Amino acid sequence: QVQLVESGGGLVQPGGSLRLSCAASGSIFSIYAMGWYRQAPGNERELAAVISSGGSTNYADSVKGRFTISRDNAKNTVYLQMNSLKPEDTAVYYCKLEQTISSKATMESWGQGTQVTVSS
Hints:
Blueprint: E1 2-7, E2 10-12, E3 18-26, E4 31-39, E5 46-52, E6 57-59, E7 67-72, E8 77-82, E9 91-102, E10 105-110, E11 114-118
Parallel strand pairs: 2-11
Antiparallel strand pairs: 1-3, 3-8, 4-5, 4-9, 5-6, 7-8, 9-10, 9-11
């Protein structure tokens, strides 16, 4: 069983910073990528940032220049440093793990989500 434990969410004022962490444990064999998705009330879940096991990254246009994703492969942990936060960043942030399980298939695992609220 794969477990993803997220932490670091909370309430912050506009312009502030938060750092999210996601630690993966359990049946971890071959990580393909880890990422952060977010979902605001009434909206669909969207990709915020993703990082491959090799270190390549991709970001949503809305967070480029403000968010940085990083990882510690030895700890199976991914981080999201969020700076210059805006009210529109308010959402539940979900950690996602994608593993390669064969040459033709991958498996996705999701965390429970952590609330980020940006408000004055």
